Amino acid sequence: MLGRVVVLNGVSSVGKSSTAREIQRLASAPFLHMAMDTFLDMLPPRVLNHPDGWSFETWIEDGHPAVAIHSGILVTRMLAGMRRAVAAMASQGNNVVVDDVMFEPGEDEDYRTVLQDYDLRIVGLRAPLETIEARERARGDREIGLARWQFERVHRARRYDLELDTSLESPEASAARIVRAFDL
What we know:
- The structure is a single chain.
- By secondary structure, this protein is of the alpha/beta class.
- Helix 1 (16-26) crosses helix 7 and helix 3 runs parallel beside helix 4 (107-114).
- The longest helix has 19 residues, at 73-91.
- The protein has helices spanning 16-26, 36-40, 73-91, 107-114, 129-139, 146-151, 171-181; strands at residues 4-9, 31-35, 54-61, 64-71, 95-100, 119-126, 162-165.
- Strand 3 (54-61) and strand 4 form a beta hairpin.
- Strands 2-5-1-6-7 form a five-stranded parallel beta sheet, sandwiched between helices. Strands 3-4 form a two-stranded antiparallel ribbon.
């Protein structure tokens, strides 16, 4: 039996991890939480600010810091591998909830291709930029400005099975809507 997969996509600090943990708590079947950040932590430190890894560009936009992320070949391959790791986990009957930040074109379609034989649901999590930036500042573990740069990119040309505004409800309420919508 193949596992079910729910991918949560949204900008940094929109509430993906909190919503994923609530899905784990509320779903009738167990779900593993696979986070993009876990895979990014696998990268060797020497590829930070390196053209083959991750590089960051900071500037001021409308009086606010903005931080662009540039992915090199190593990060691009690693993220493609992450999507295939999700499929490998689901192929063994594991249900998986993924939290991802898809800012490159075609990443959602790659999920759909890799997981075409699975019960895959892709959920867009949104909130107003001001809300996300306030969360980003409050967290203290994110570079200020990541959300601003990601905001216009993460949802561009994506096909979702469900979209939710996390500024209107708690992670528990968002997770409950996802669980109900997909009968998890």
